[in-house]
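Final report, section 2: Outcomes. Of the targets proposed, Cytochrome c biogenesis protein ResB is the one most frequently requested by collaborating groups, and we therefore present its record in full.
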Amino acid sequence: MRTALVLLFLLALAALPGALLPQRDLNEPKVREYITQHGWWGQLLDRLQFFDVYASVWFSAIYLLLMVSLVGCLAPRSVDYIRSMRAKPVLTPRNLSRMPHHTRAELDADPDEVLAAATKRLRGWRKVEREEKNGARSISAERGYLRETGNLFFHFGMLGVIITFALGAMYSYEGQVIVFADGSDASEFCNSGIYAYDSFNPGLRVDGTQLTPFCFRVNDFKATYADSGQPIAYESNLEYQSGDDLADNTWRPYHLEVNEPLRTDGDRVYLLDHGFAPEFTVTFPDGSTRTHSIQWRPVDNTTGLSEGATKFETPGITDPVERRENQLAVTGLFAPTAMLQGKVLTSAGPQLTDPAVAVDVMRGDLGVDSGRGQSIFEIDQSMVDSGRLERVARENLEVGQQLRLDDGTTVRFDGVNQWVSLQVSHDPTQVWVLGFAVAMFAGLGGSLFIKRRRVWVRVTPAQGADDQRLTVVEVGGLARTDQAGYGEEFAKIADDLLSGDRKAR
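The predicted structure is given below as tokens.
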């Protein structure tokens, strides 16, 4: 146990860098920034795996040693427990008066009657009757063996939780996806591969080719807010199909809420967040039009103010250089409940009552052909800094309003769609984790509340006055655990055994 406690302390100490330093699996840019700012010190920490604490060699070593220590502790304790369960209660002490609890009386009763009454009173106790010297007979009884059972249950449950967590990390996966909440094709999602997700975190043994097949379609979304603008509830009606439903194209309804996920075939679909997707129509000088609606990122959850960038390609241009020089991006802010402070657009609340946008129209090279990944929520600032992407218009627009560019191109704000952010989680070991966790708490309750105690009853025949037969009865007790209450229990047992016509005490 000392070894386990030392390793637990070391594990807690080793986890501190993971809380104090940025971690690569959570925020790679933050790690690079930290290393750059701290020079040789940041590089040394990187070589020592302080930015990958929970996957580091030294953290894993402590973790594995703790596992070995736990198994090494449980194995001999289990053997000792089996031996103690098979063993008979200990012999009755020679001098019961030395026990913490002791009572003696002379009863006008036959020894067999006293022993029979004692056996009946100690029903449920593990007991054995023995013959002693001088014609004395005794009963040795013990109770509370389930205390050690609970202790072992707790530790085996802990071991099971650790193992199932490890297996879950190998075979589970978690992905996030954003879909529109209008019942259109853009609101459908099928769990057919990792390419369908916006972000995907697989387990060590998950390659993304054998995901649980199911589909869902989000038909609407409703948010309830407090007067302060804080969200109270998110609700969404969706339809889903899994298993045999996929073969016969059967859609089943489900009302999705926060913390009330859709559960299907071992997967869970959670409702995380929502936002807005302004819709713009660009009419080019040749009369061709392009309409796009893509999600914008919330920047203030209490007002619903969002920012983003909707990007367009000019149609009919085949020359790659000319095509890159004539790309368009509509960037800016979206307010669900518009409020102007001068010409500055802000939002009075998150409810979608009076939508408006404040847009900057950028023209030039968006950098989408550079080969580098690019956020859908913003434009490449390096293109602006280099002069390859320029702002050609700025204006506030309400629904139905449009602005005209210098070449005759018009940009119209058509309206807004709502999107929801959903998370799909798959963990095949969650039922086992729950079972072992329940075993842990049940075992902990048993080890805390069950009392281990012993009782001895010695019956000795004695010759009384006037040839009256007396029986000397001694009752001794010992609590195996430091827990209050056994004194009252012993007194009640002794009173039941020694009640009757007594001649002495």
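The two ends are 47 Å apart (CA to CA).
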